[in-house]
Design a protein that fits this description.
Distance between the termini: 21 Å
Structural class: alpha+beta
Number of domains: 2
Strand order of the largest sheet: 22-21-20-19-23
Number of strands: 23
């Protein structure tokens, strides 16, 4: 489940690196964003993208324009800030290029830059302040949740970014910008100052506002799902599904069921939907989206046979009944007959191998069956994990189990 969204992040949401020492180029696309009420439209465009998306890496020189959506009247324009060092002929940008933009109904704008800053603009497009998100992680969070890759630091899968309304500790209502991470850390930025704000009162309100945001996102998305090219919309929907499961939002169950029934483009969400349903105490009805694939000999080792996946009609109830018959030495074909395709792939630190996880929906006592299929297409390792890995922690989201589930 994680890998698909990591690809989205690599292509569109990778971190800004002023010194281009990374092995992976990053492409910062033009952005269009609307206010929730639809009255305002923000466009962020770079001349570096004039030849089309994904043509020139590290686009900069963005111009932000806020429009009245119905008339296209320009409300304000703002250029990506630049500076020139003394004696140097070229200017350089002092603010990261945008990878996200969010418009409040009032006309305020929050820009997510590629170095994971949130730049807050007032209703005239003037900069109020900039708040670091990645830079605010503790060393422990950075070690645990941030992957250092050639595409930059990666951590934002299932994160949510949105304006919310809350009252400060003095009881005064105001707008805040919320950033919620996959591991449910919440950053709040005061829209009046652009600076980070925090208190128990604000955190409580953030949890409620986050739930309301997720429900609204689910309701709108089942009526009009994000298009295949709308990577930002797809990321928001994945975050909403994740929040529904983590917060145990019972009202989301009918919406998740609608998503589960969907076919075609909806399949990419099914693993996340199944995870959310299980956290809500529900048993999924459609089978997992993943299929078993045999290993094939290749020039350099072995590769999965993507052209001929093993089809399966095993139900989740049948999987539970057959789980005890999954033992070391059976063939991948027999594994498929017994339990079908897995719910997830994970790297298991204990086994030092990539493994397949099967969730067992045992009433009141869910478990995970972890299986390794060797390159000879037979099962080499079998583990039963109690409780299921999704009950606590974020192994399923990370795709990596450091051993805490065992």
């Amino acid at each position: 489940m994680l890998l698909g969204w990591l690809l989205v992040v690599v292509l569109l949401l990778a971190a800004f690196v002023p010194l281009r020492a990374w092995a992976t180029d990053r492409y910062y696309s033009d952005i269009t964003a609307f206010s929730p009420d639809g009255r305002l439209r923000l466009e962020a465009k770079s001349p570096d993208n004039s030849a089309g998306p994904m043509r020139r890496a590290f686009a900069s020189n963005f111009v932000y324009t806020l429009y009245q959506a119905d008339t296209n009247a320009v409300i304000w324009k703002r250029e990506q800030p630049k500076a020139r060092s003394k004696g140097m002929p070229d200017e350089w940008t002092t603010e990261g290029s945008p990878i996200g933009a969010f418009v409040h109904n009032s006309g305020q704008v929050a820009i997510r830059t590629a170095d994971d800053q949130v730049v807050m603009l007032d209703t005239q497009g003037r900069t109020l302040g900039s708040s670091p998100i990645l830079g605010s992680f503790s060393p422990e969070e950075r070690e645990r949740w941030v992957s250092e890759t050639t595409a930059g630091p990666m951590w934002d899968y299932y994160s949510a970014w949105a304006f919310i309304e809350a009252t400060d500790d003095a009881g005064e209502p105001r707008a805040y910008f919320l950033v919620r991470t996959m591991w449910q850390r919440r950053f709040l930025i005061d829209a009046r100052t652009g600076t980070l704000a925090d208190s128990p009162r604000l955190q409580e309100q953030a949890v409620r506002a986050e739930a309301a945001w997720a429900m609204d996102m689910l309701q709108r998305s089942v009526k009009r799902p994000p298009s295949p090219s709308d990577w930002a919309g797809r990321s928001r929907l994945a975050a909403a599904v994740h929040i529904a499961g983590c917060q145990r939002l019972a009202g989301s169950i009918p919406l998740l069921r609608q998503m589960e029934r969907g076919k075609g483009d909806w399949d990419q969400y099914r693993s996340g939907v199944h995870l959310a349903l299980r956290r809500l105490g529900e048993v999924p009805r459609r089978g997992p989206v993943l299929e078993l694939k045999r290993w094939l000999k290749a020039e350099y080792g072995r590769v999965p046979d993507h052209q001929n996946p093993l089809p399966s009609t095993v139900t989740f109830a049948q999987r539970v009944a057959n789980a005890a018959r999954v033992v070391e030495g059976i063939t991948i074909e027999r594994l498929n007959e017994l339990v079908g395709g897995p719910d997830a792939q994970v790297y298991c630190h204990v086994l030092q191998r990539h493994a397949l996880d099967y969730d067992l929906d045992i009433p009141g006592a869910p478990e995970t069956l972890r299986v390794v299929v060797g390159e000879n297409n037979t099962v080499t390792h079998v583990r039963r994990i109690v409780p299921a890995v999704w009950v606590k922690g974020y192994v399923r989201e990370m795709g990596y189990d450091p051993g805490e589930s065992d």
